[in-house]
Design a protein that fits this description.
The protein has 210 residues and is an alpha/beta fold. The protein is built from 5 helices and 9 strands, in the order ββααβββαββββαα. This is ABC-type transport auxiliary lipoprotein component domain-containing protein.
Length: 210
């Protein structure tokens, strides 16, 4: 049975490309449609799904009163937008992404906590700085390290507030890495970092400061 070896969560302050001219049309279409690529080599991984129904943010949403009037903008600052890089022996690394962009997933997670702003709106800018699981696979074992980091900047008439939230999760186990391991670990660390932000007393104190 696979197991999670360690779980470390912390807040921090402060392919080989396909050659279209060498492929027949049918092969080119198949290669272009893949979400997980290593050159044109497919794996058992398909589009990854983000299940947000059991997250801490989802569970707390029903008791979050009142909602925070704010304009939310989420930007993915990562140079590549995949959430998994998988290494197997000396073969080229393979990559996978969520079916939805991380920006949209974060907006969905925070939507129950935010309301349309009225006068003197609060502007929230969330910059995704890191969001990746790096995995090593052998015939009999796998190991994966995931890390998510988001910088939050809040602006309103009284000034600007900013902080970076980071969460990590490490896993290793027998046999092959499964897609749901990647899905659950990435959702978990995103939920941890965003929960730290939404429950940050420093942020709440700044909001009420005259």
């Amino acid at each position: 049975m696979d197991r999670t070896k360690t779980l470390n969560e912390a807040m921090m302050y402060k392919h080989t490309p396909c050659n279209p001219f060498s492929l027949r049309p049918a092969l080119l279409a198949a290669c272009a449609s893949m979400v997980l690529l290593s050159g044109c080599k497919s794996t058992e991984f398909g589009p990854l799904q983000a299940d947000l129904s059991t997250t801490q943010l989802a569970n707390q949403a029903s008791t979050q009163q009142p909602r925070l009037p704010a304009q939310l903008n989420v930007v993915d600052m990562r140079p590549q937008h995949h959430v998994l890089r998988l290494h197997y022996k000396t073969e080229p690394a393979q990559f996978a992404t969520f079916q939805q962009p991380l920006t949209m997933i974060i907006q969905q997670q925070l939507a129950p906590y935010l309301a349309d702003p009225t006068n003197n709106p609060l502007r929230l800018q969330l910059n995704i700085q890191e969001g990746l699981c790096v995995a090593d696979q052998t015939l009999s074992r796998h190991a994966m390290n995931c890390r998510f980091s988001v910088q939050v900047t809040a602006n309103q008439s009284r000034g600007t507030w900013t902080k970076t939230y980071t969460a990590t999760r490490n896993r290793e186990g027998k046999l092959k890495l499964k897609p749901d391991y990647v899905e659950s670990d990435m959702v978990a660390i995103m939920d941890t970092a965003l929960s730290h932000f939404m429950n940050d007393q420093d942020f709440k104190d700044w909001l009420t400061r005259p």
